[in-house]
Amino acid sequence: MRKLIDQLARTSFLTSVELLDLLDHMNEADIKYLHERAIAVKKDHYGDTVYMRGLIEFTNYCTNDCLYCGIRKSNRNAERYRLTKEQILECCEMGNTLGYRTFVLQGGDDPYYTDERIVDLITAIKTANPDCAITLSIGEKSYESYKKYQDAGVDRYLLRHETNSRQLYESLHPDMSYDNRIRCLTDIKEIGLQVGAGFMVGLPGQTNTDFVNDLMFLKDLNPHMVGIGPFMPQKNTPLKDAESGTAAKTYVLLSLVRLLLPKVLLPATTALGSIDPKGRENGLKSGANVVMPNLSPTNVRDKYLLYDGKICTGDEAAHCRGCIEKRINSAGFVVDMGRGDHVSYKE
Ligand code: SAH
Fold it and tell me: How far apart are CA 254 and CA 260, in angstroms?
């Protein structure tokens, strides 16, 4: 196993057979070694720094019906909200004061937010915060829409592929197509936005072979960012009784992604911090180098409930900023409040 890990760390590549061998057969000591190699590779490119992004969850209306997600359209129990342009600008102002230089605007696929409204919003945020990067995460759009967002000033776009196994993807996403999801990712990349893909860990029926597909897909796409988090059930969804993914498996996959894509921007996600109280610290110790504290107004935070048990739903933005910084330091890393672009990214 160690030979394979060394080879992966040295060449940033393994075949799918070798990756499956690792996932199937690593023991605890091998996994510890894997995490050490992943931290070392992260250090080569980013030193001890961890980038901070201010997350604004600006709408939980959604036209999609993803079986796992608490804001799916069929969830009649979800209390819907939508922040106004003014509220979003206030979040950014607060974030800017706290030192953030990246804002991540995430939401359900909400038809109220037409391209025109998004462009207007982005223009306003960029005018008020010219030195800040904007990441958008609002789902599947046309090439033309992504291009409009970029022209308005969007720097990055997050769209997890969720799972690269077509059958599993299509069983979890009624009326959505795997091919369209992948088309979106290639369009975003072609346009020249920094692109983020990623997947959930521990979806019902997901196997190590599925994870190998995810890893090979990511190696091939070569995105700037990869979001990985454990699946966690939400009580008003069809998957309410399914078992969650595990933190331990997520750490392994974070390390494998770090070694396959050495320069990738890799967050220790909120879902990871929700499933394990030390999830974000351990994520950083597995090779992650980004955290995304919540900047949303406190009165809407408990409504953006993708899964049960989400952390930080009652905290103020300033509290999150301080809490996360302490956690990052305790894990042996330091906060970098810059824009935190991918090291190879040139305007
Ligand atoms: N509408 C946007 C944002 C979706 S929510 C889009 O389609 O990209 C952001 C991410 O949360 C999803 O991509 C998914 O990976 C994750 N997520 C949703 N429900 C979840 C759950 N029950 N457990 C863990 N992660 C979940």
Answer: 10
Position 52 in a domain: yes
Q: Which domain holds residue 308?
A: 2-6+23-336
Q: What is the pTM of this model?
A: 0.98
Q: How many domains, the chain? A: 1
Is the residue at 157 inside a domain? yes
In a domain, 197, yes or no: yes
Instruction: List phi, psi (to 5°) of 228.
Output: -130, 130
| H, E, C per residue of 28-47 | HHHHHHHHHHHHHHHHHHHC
The residue to mutate among 158, 200, 270, having the most atoms of ligand 1 within 8 angstroms of its beta carbon, is 200
Per-residue pLDDT tens over the stretch 264-290: 999 999 999 999 999 999 999 999 999
* Pocket flag, ligand 1, residue 110 (CB < 6 Å): no
Angle at 162 between CA 22 and CA 255, to 5 degrees: 35
Q: Is 341 contained in some domain? A: no
**Backbone angles phi and psi of 263, in degrees to 5:** -95, 5
Q: Is 188 in the pocket of ligand 1 (CB under 6 A)?
A: no
Share of the chain above pLDDT 90, in %: 99
Residue 162 Cβ contacting ligand 1 at under 6 Å: yes
Cα–Cα distance list, 322 to 36, 108, 256 (Å): 27, 28, 30
* CATH code where residue 88 lies: 3.20.20.70
71 CA distance to ligand 1 middle (Å):
9
Tell me how far apart the alpha carbons of residues 206 and 202 are, in angstroms, rounded to a whole number: 6
Ligand 1 lined by 160 (C-beta under 6 Å): yes
- Give the residue among 273, 305, 332, 292 at the shortest CA–CA distance from 95: 292
Mutate to test the pocket of ligand 1, among 69, 183, 214, 243 (most ligand atoms within 8 A of CB): 69
Q: Is the CB of 109 under 6 A from ligand 1?
A: yes
